[in-house]
Amino acid sequence: MSSPDRPRVLLLSMHTSPVDQPGTGDAGGMNVYVWHLAHALAHAGWAVDMATLDRDPSHSPGIRTTDLAPGVRLLTVALAGAAEVPKEGLPRFARAFGEALAQHYADDAAPVVHAHYWLSGVAGLHVASFLRAPLVLTLHTSAAAKNLRAGSDESPEPAEREAAERELIAHACRTVVNTPAEQRQVVELYGADPASVVVIPPGVDPEVFHPPVPDERDELRNGPFTVLSAGRMQPLKGQQILVRA
User: Residue 132: helix, strand or coil by DSSP?
Assistant: First the structure.
């Protein structure tokens, strides 16, 4: 399965597929992040596999592989009974998800495992342990930080999640965070080794986000001023800070 001249990385996104349309189901910013990360790694010379849970109940258990772009594949893992389970019920399938992927790579060169979100982390820990591969973790959000800042009308994150994140951070060779503030949270709330927590700010696609051309600048200067915020309406996303600003 591995290309002889390309190292392989396995990006785990168990609960939501990187190819899903953001704004549908559980698809959002993390999907965009993983999708662009996969393409950037492929461009840098890596063979990239993205693995997600198969949500089609008509599929029999197993792993289906789809080539998406040069150097990028999607692995959809079908597990008995998991297709129609809501996100809250997925923790009990995380180990089986990881075991299926570990068997998939058992006779091949072990990939670097990069897990996204805590459910993928639980699965990734099994993959990495079985294959004796390095585990990189990106939580995107953490239970401890969310509970610390949750609004009075928001349900707290389950203790199971926070305990799992604590174990994952302790075992991951690197934990990737977006900002220095998030790095401090991981160290202070989870007791992470500061040397193992790496700040990598998310990038942008310059083909989409770029300064306006001269005609557009003139139009913007003379037209109404509009501020755009993209994200779900919840206190954690911080729209209230934007409004106050």
Answer: coil
Beta bridge partners of 10: 49, 113
Q: What is the pTM of this model?
A: 0.87
Residue 127 phi/psi, 5-degree rounding, is: -60, -50
CA-wise closest residue to 113 among 10, 35, 2, 198: 10
Question: Rounded CA gap, 23 and 37, in Å?
Answer: 19
User: Do the beta carbons of residue 123 and residue 95 sit within 8 Å?
Assistant: yes
pLDDT tens sequence across 119-165: 999 999 999 999 999 999 999 999 999 898 877 777 899 999 999 99
Q: Report the DSSP pairing between strands 62-69 and 72-78.
A: antiparallel
Taking the C-alpha atoms of residue 21 and residue 27, their distance in angstroms, rounded to an integer, is: 6
d(CA 123, CA 111): 14
CA 75-203-151 angle, 5° bins = 85
d(CA 231, CA 50): 24
Please, what are the domains in the chain?
8-208 (3.40.50.2000)
Structure tokens at 154: 């928001």
Transcribe 72-93 into DSSP letters. EEEEEEE-TTTTT--GGGGGGG
